[in-house]
């Protein structure tokens, strides 16, 4: 399975749910709409990890969602996972790709736009963008802030997911900064009701991201409901294809080659200025 169509990424963290098993909690998250799952356990022995990976492999198959193993490409293969997630360690992406081949998913953590571009060029299937906020799940890792989320929204062309310190109270501002996929760990697996948190996050994502329905944007100073998913589609919708146009999104001019990668979302301000005549 290499199809990557997800909006809510959930990662295991057993320390956040003492008294409940990993299977129980992840099953609840899947009921709530988690649409990709990662096994992350920084201290387990490989034999223990493999057992957990096999369990999650079975569970994610029941729900038809991709299953990713953190850090261990070889173990991902042994557990028949859909892919692996690697960090910024030297050669991590290249080695993972060599081991997993073209058909499995390789995800990469990034903390800056330069790293994102390198991961894209290196053949990553998706990237993590974060930690957006400081988080106890990854202590000591500086927050990249919403600035990097905004940059990712403008420039990253492969699927990317915002991660780090995201919960129901701040998810909307991450979406408003341009994220269309969220990953939350403690907010979901540490909650009394993981399914309910997942449902709420999914609802926030789908009402914010055009494509799940319609987006309401400000277009040339007026409210405009649109089914267009990207700036390119909006230009087409307005019958401006092939015209000399300057497009601006949220106050910044967007080069033409980025129009098809720029996702529209509710609340966005768009200006489409077209030049009339030959001058
Ligand atoms: C989806 C996703 N994004 C980022 C990470 C973090 O990976 P990494 O930087 O390698 O840190 P560890 O998780 O290995 O501690 C991730 N696991 N998943
Ligand atoms: C693994 C990882 N990588 C960047 S932030 C993070 C942890 C995210 O966890 P939480 O959602 O609990 O902040
Ligand atoms: Mg790692």
From TrEMBL:
What GO MF annotations does this protein's record show? magnesium ion binding; thiamine-phosphate diphosphorylase activity
Q: Which UniProt keywords apply?
A: Magnesium, Metal-binding, Thiamine biosynthesis, Transferase
Per its UniProt record, the required cofactor names are: Mg(2+)
- UniProt cross-references to Gene3D superfamilies, sorted A to Z: 3.10.20.30, Aldolase class I (3.20.20.70)
One GO term describing the cellular component: cytoplasm
Note the InterPro entries from the entry.
Aldolase_TIM (IPR013785), Beta-grasp_dom_sf (IPR012675), Mopterin_synth/thiamin_S_b (IPR016155), Thi_S (IPR010035), ThiamineP_synth_sf (IPR036206), ThiamineP_synth_TenI (IPR022998), ThiS/MoaD-like (IPR003749), TMP_synthase (IPR034291)
Reply yes or no: does the keyword Ligase apply.
no
Reactions catalysed, as given in the entry: 2-[(2R,5Z)-2-carboxy-4-methylthiazol-5(2H)-ylidene]ethyl phosphate + 4-amino-2-methyl-5-(diphosphooxymethyl)pyrimidine + 2 H(+) = thiamine phosphate + CO2 + diphosphate; 4-methyl-5-(2-phosphooxyethyl)-thiazole + 4-amino-2-methyl-5-(diphosphooxymethyl)pyrimidine + H(+) = thiamine phosphate + diphosphate; 2-(2-carboxy-4-methylthiazol-5-yl)ethyl phosphate + 4-amino-2-methyl-5-(diphosphooxymethyl)pyrimidine + 2 H(+) = thiamine phosphate + CO2 + diphosphate
Amino acids binding 2-[(2R,5Z)-2-carboxy-4-methylthiazol-5(2H)-ylidene]ethyl phosphate: 135-137, 165, 185-186
Part of which pathway?
Cofactor biosynthesis; thiamine diphosphate biosynthesis; thiamine phosphate from 4-amino-2-methyl-5-diphosphomethylpyrimidine and 4-methyl-5-(2-phosphoethyl)-thiazole: step 1/1
Q: Which family does it belong to?
A: Belongs to the thiamine-phosphate synthase family.
Any idea what this protein is called?
A: Thiamine-phosphate synthase
Natural source organism? Paenibacillus herberti
- Upper taxonomic lineage: Bacteria, Bacillati, Bacillota, Bacilli, Bacillales
